[in-house]
Amino acid sequence: MNNLCVAHRGFSGKAPENTLAAFRMAMELPYVTWMEIDVQLTRDGVPVVIHDYSLDRTTNGHGKVKDMDWSQMRRLDAGGWKNRSFRGERIPSLEEVLELSKERMRLNIELKNAGNLYPGIEKTVTQLLASKGMSKDVVLTSFDTGTLQRCQEADPAVRRGLIFDSRWGDPAGRVRELGCSFLSIAFSRLTPGLARFMSARGVGLMAWTVNKAKEMRRLADMHSDIMICTNRPDIWGDTFLGV
């Protein structure tokens, strides 16, 4: 099966997204080879794994990620909102996730840095990857082109990818202009022509977020190189492996 399974924020269909519980659950499935995670910085510069700029939806805290120190953030409950059985799950640091996944899983790390909200995040993350010996095991992705350019400056050895979700524009052209080797695209924006074009040029391609078997099959029929990013890796397994 060429259409690799990417667990979106871990096994986020069943566990609280972007928590160690969600990552461990995804890693229990042998066919999950990639996970997609989101990274921001605390006020004191610690890379943490959380999607929203606000703490309100996925924790019992309030306010902005950027306004809270790591010592405060690590005490928040990031699991109870999903299910009472996950009470006590914490927001993980990127370092914790790297240690968990090293030599077991590759990571698509989205840097949440719209408008350079987190100055220096690119250098902080690339240095951490290098210190763990994982610079070759990840792709750094972002909607923000400035962030991608600064990633290149921080460490040219780390693979970079553009995230694209627009009815208009030229994703292939933007990937080329940025010198990226990866395109992360909303599955509804992906066409057979674009998939063939990117694959022929050696650009990795990931479609998100795909939770229905019908859409997974459609993407697989479109091109074998399309990575399928899903909240429900179990549905991927049922669809393609019958497990």
TrEMBL record:
Alphabetical list of Pfam families matching this protein: GDPD
GO molecular function, one term: phosphoric diester hydrolase activity
InterPro entries membership: GP_PDE_dom, PLC-like_Pdiesterase_TIM-brl
Domain GP-PDE: 3-240
Alphabetized PROSITE patterns for the sequence: GP_PDE
Any one biological process term the GO annotation gives: lipid metabolic process
The protein's name: Glycerophosphoryl diester phosphodiesterase
